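Q: Sequence in, structure out?
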Amino acid sequence: MPEWLDFQGRMNVSSHQHDAADPVNSSLNFAYSLVESEDRTVVNAIGLEPAVGFLHEPSATQTRESLVYDLMEPFRWIADLSVVNAFEAGALKLHDFYFTGDDYRYRFEPEAKDRFISTLRERVNAGVTYNGQVLKWDTVIERKTAELGRFLTGKAYGLDFGEPAPSLLRQDDSELRAKLLSLTSSEAKRLGIPKQSLHDLRMKSRSARSFKLYAGTRRKLSHTEIR
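A: Exactly. Output:
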């Protein structure tokens, strides 16, 4: 995370960051609440008892829905990755938050919250292959919760929350950025990368923001070496 966000982690000196003392924690709290809501909906729809969990115990900061919080853990990465992507891509900026003097918390501006919801929705809608089908992650959450129900009632003899596994590899890693910044105009021309495209890619490589490449351009760059 950029230093100007002053993100020190999920724990401060005295307590957990439910109070959101910085914009990143404010964003994480909001994102986690949406994942929690999805898990709660699925648990109730399938008919499991939300108060009977395995990892979490009821506490003063959480409702008595331990199973809901248990089921958040395998999918917490959706919130984490969405927050990182939102700040790196500029969908969230410092001026999108305001600090409240009454409870000393950072909160979203309404327009920024709408933009962030779009980022979360894009991540949830990303397809993943599971049991021969391409599913959205909200469907995966439903399927895995149903599998838990079958396991608990003895209708299934195995349970694996490690599958399907998300692909968290970034396209714009340091190696790719180095390739783009070292690529000469003559090499780009030989690879079939237009001059304007090369200029745009170099600008993106110098930026801290995340970016994506067309599959064709990525294949062309795969044949080049870092100098």
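Residues 174-221 form one domain.
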